[in-house]
Every structure is written in C-alpha cells, then in structure tokens.
Design a protein that fits this description.
single chain, alpha+beta, 1 helix, 3 strands
Length: about 60
C-alpha cells in the first residue's frame, strides 16, 4: 500500500460494518464490523508509533 493508492470508506449501517476499498478498477475490499473498528484504529496507531520511534532512533544515530 502506498500514499497514492485510492482508499474509500463506505459505511454499511444495514450490516453494522464499514467497507474499506483500496484501488480503482479491481479494488481490494476490507469489511470491518463496528465492534472491530476501534481495535483496527488502535493497531494502526501502534504501528504508526513504532515507525515514528524507529525513524527517531535512526535520526539520532542510535
């Protein structure tokens, strides 16, 4: 996945889910239940913090 990959969310209230589409012509779809959305956000945030910490260590020469 890269920053220029189109990403589109679609709330599916009738199914109590969120659909995330990645790509255009033949998108990959991730369907997330409402109850799992907060955990998905936490996991992405954990990954982001780990990347930031790694970059900070590399900049500091450690």
């Amino acid at each position: 996945m890269t920053a220029d990959l189109p990403m589109r969310p679609l709330a599916m209230p009738f199914a109590d889910r969120v659909e995330l589409r990645f790509g255009k012509a033949f998108p990959v779809v991730l369907v997330v239940d409402r109850d799992a959305v907060p955990r998905l956000r936490e996991v992405l945030d954990e990954g982001w913090k780990a990347l930031q910490a790694s970059a900070a260590r590399q900049e500091g020469g450690q």
